[in-house]
Amino acid sequence: MNDEQLLRYSRHILLNEIGDSGQERLLDSHALIIGAGGLGSPAALYLGSAGVGRLTIVDDDAVDATNLQRQIAHTLARVGMPKAESARLSIEAINPDVRVMPVVARAGAEELDALVRDADVVLDCCDNFTTRHAVNAACVKHRKPLVSGAAIRFDGQVTVYDPRQADSPCYACVFPADAHFEETRCATLGVFAPLVGIVGAMQAAEALKLLVPTGQSLAGRLQMLDGRHMAWTEMRLPRQAGCAVCGPRN
């Protein structure tokens, strides 16, 4: 690190759990963020400000006026701009040293295979089951940790799926593709603005802990937030031996 970086990241360096070596790891790391909306906005901003050296942000949507209530990476002046590009501008305004690669596309299985292979950690900040399952499959294949978050109305949840751990479940263990869960979207049900900030910030925290590495991740544990009463509940998530995605994993 140069003198400017030592100053910028001094509050991280002071932490025994991070220090010089941990910050160097962050600077050399690559995080892949799927979605630049309510969850992806705070996650990307915190990862960028914390000094994760490379960020790839994938989103095929454009900034809309209705997004500005909660998607803090975007501004009124950027309505109509691709969200991935808008997020890049916001991150570079905070930390120009971070290399941000915006991908303006809805990544399918083939694209995700290449993107996940090149990342050190993946953050699922999207809003649909199809993409979530595709991201999960790629993470299991390439043994990359996946930080998953979701938020709707006043309810949020966050967990980590880590295929490097033999006892860690994958997303499909908890939400099987054939279970036909009801797709819920904030465009029809609404979402409490700070809720996505809380969950997205937690996703960033879990990603940073995995990259350093330090502490204990949320692998095998699902944290659920009732924002009405600001009450957290934790559920243990066992790996399913018969899972179609990670079942054969050794």
Structure characterization notes:
- The chain is built from 10 helices and 8 strands.
- The chain has 250 residues and is an alpha/beta fold.
- Strands 3-2-1-4-5-6-7-8 form an 8-stranded mixed beta sheet, sandwiched between helices.
- Helix 7 (129-142) links the parallel strand 4 (121-124) and strand 5.
- Helix 4 packs parallel to helix 5, helix 4 (40-50) packs across helix 10 and helix 6 (109-117) packs across helix 7.
- It is globular, with a radius of gyration of 17 Å.
- The N and C termini lie far apart (38 Å).
- The relative contact order is 0.15.
- The model has no long low-confidence stretch (mean pLDDT 95).
Per the principal axes of the C-alpha atoms, what is the gross shape? globular
Largest sheet properties:
8 strands, mixed
Mean pLDDT: 95
| Contiguous runs where pLDDT drops below 50 for at least 5 residues | none
SSE arrangement, N to C: HHHEHEHEHEHEEHHHEE
Number of domains: 1
Residues in β-strands, percent: 15-25%
Radius of gyration: 17 Å
CATH architectural grouping: 3-Layer(aba) Sandwich
Tell me the quaternary state: single chain
End-to-end gap: 38 Å
Count of DSSP H/I helices = 10
Strand order within the widest beta sheet? 3-2-1-4-5-6-7-8
**The named CATH superfamily:** NAD(P)-binding Rossmann-like Domain
CATH topology: Rossmann fold
CATH uppermost class: Alpha Beta
The SS-based structural class is alpha/beta
Helix content: 25-40%
Beta strand count: 8
What structural keywords apply?
250 residues; Rossmann fold; alpha/beta; eight-stranded mixed sheet; globular; 10 helices
